[in-house]
Amino acid sequence: xxxxxxxxxFAERLLGGPVLWAGLALLSAFAFGPFVWMLLTSLKNRQxxxxxxxxxxxxQYTFENYIEAWTSPITPFSRFFLNSLWVCSVTMVAxxxxxxxxxxxxxxxxxxxxxxxxxxxxxxxxxxxxxLIAPLLAQWRSLGLIDTYQALIYSNFTFTVPFTVxxxxxxxxxxxxxxxxxxMIDGCSQFGSLCRVVLPLAAPGIAATAIFAxxxxxxxxxxxxxxxxxxxxxTLSAGLLYMVGQYEVQWGQLSAGVIMSTxxxxxxxxFLQRHLIHGLTAGAVKG
Amino acid sequence: xxxxSVTGGSRRARPLLSMRARTLLTGYAYxxxxxxxxxxxxxxxxxxxxxxxxxxxxxxxxxxxxxxxxANYMRLAQDPVFWLTLWNSxxxxxxxxxxxxxxxxxxxxxxxxxxxxxAVVRTVVLLPWIIPGVVVGLIxxxxxxxxxxxxxxxxxxAGWLHDRVAWLSNPDLAMAAVVFTNVWRGIPFFAIMLLAxxxxxxxxxxxxxxxxxxxVLDRFWHVTLPLMRPIIVVATATRIIWxxxxxxxxxxxxxxxxxNATQITSTYTLLQAYSNLDFGYAAALSVVxxxxxxxxxxxxxxxxxxxxxxx
Lengths: 287, 311
Known about the structure:
The structure holds two protein chains of two kinds.
Chain A lengths: L1 H41 L3 H4 L14 H8 L5 H32 L5 H11 L4 H14 L6 H25 L3 H9 L4 H30 L2 H6 L8 H10 L5 H36 L1
Chain B lengths: L18 H34 L2 E2 L9 E2 L3 H7 L2 H33 L5 H13 L2 H12 L5 H8 L16 H26 L3 H9 L4 H30 L2 H6 L11 H10 L4 H32 L1
Antiparallel strand pairs in B: 1-2
């Protein structure tokens, strides 16, 4: 009995000390190592990039890869970047408005078909996006929307809206209904109580929803390469792939492009990590 | 509610609609934008996809466009590549999800501990998950690069490898290489979900188990795991569906090659639509993909129901 307790506490000390630190070091290195390698690559010049034996650290740090990628006339990375910024921002705003309204309605009103609607939103997330490419392509073509931002923004709704509606339902359900009722007794209209009482309380959730919509649209690739044909209309993901497709792969420029595409989402994510995690897991933990 | 209040009520006319009806109408009004979105970008396209799958619809042969019934599906049943892609999809999903789960659980247990700098470590660990799939694919293509890739270099320096290996163009290794990349990308997902599950386990239960003499492992098996079952089921099922549908990574890294060694059903669909411009056949493939997912989802919903009732 006594021996068992001693060995247990020894195991605990081992787990809490060396095992924990070794595990954390390994985990961080595995997660972050590839980024570090990409960063180092982007700061090397051509000779150092293709040196044998491999040269790990650049002898002379250079930003020429970034400048070349950003200003290249054949693969205009700055244009890709701005395209992505615009498409994702509009997607983010529109998705947030739509899902706040729908999430509030589903969380607060009991109406026929409410559960069915929730299930449809859930099921939509399970549809393969390759299923939508051919029909959407036909749809945008007949509407003359190929090579427009609208086509990309509308298409992004297919995967942002269903998920963000679920996130918002979770947030609104966690806000006590009595608060609105008392606001309405004090003379607020239904819409007024939504704007003045519920929205301020749900602000962190709404921010998380918005960021989520932005980040997933930032990653979108298949729609972007399907519904655009001109180089000038490519988003970041599509543009990076296009850079690979041009002549031989320019790993210097490409790695600079990779770093530049990562930084914005990484910054957004750092700021809103906690809320985003809360939103993503809210439904799952409860369920 | 329905009776007009006694004092001064007579000044106000009775509203046209009852309070209840107005509330309900407001609710429906709030739903309209979301419903329209779904209709235009999901419901109509899916109906259209089903319709397309019944037609001979090859983009560069418009003269052959006609209704052919189930011929695309017959062709699919006899297409050996299709059956290969189903098997590859299974390997891809199974390999990715199992490894992501194990590593993600370990990561969650580590991140659950209190230590200085936890916020920083957590952000770093979650990074691979939020960056675009193209970026993940390109990073790993460069790491796997036979001559200038760091993976070959490290393995050779460590003495585990004699010659440089072309990871992505060797049919025996390509699948393992893309699965490994996907594992790197997916660990954070499980880490987040399971960390949330860990944080929801009440501390008192651990205390009680400790007092009863349960060791670290006992506590893990008999307290942590049973309580986390619901979230484990949800996270795993979501991930299976997502991985099955996911095409970006393989599309970027190998385009399904070499010799279809990494061709999964979703990339094969993409290939038919893109390179062969055979929209009818691609639509038939995607409908099959959808059916597989619906069957899985139905099974999953039954299982989660069971979990809710027992848990």
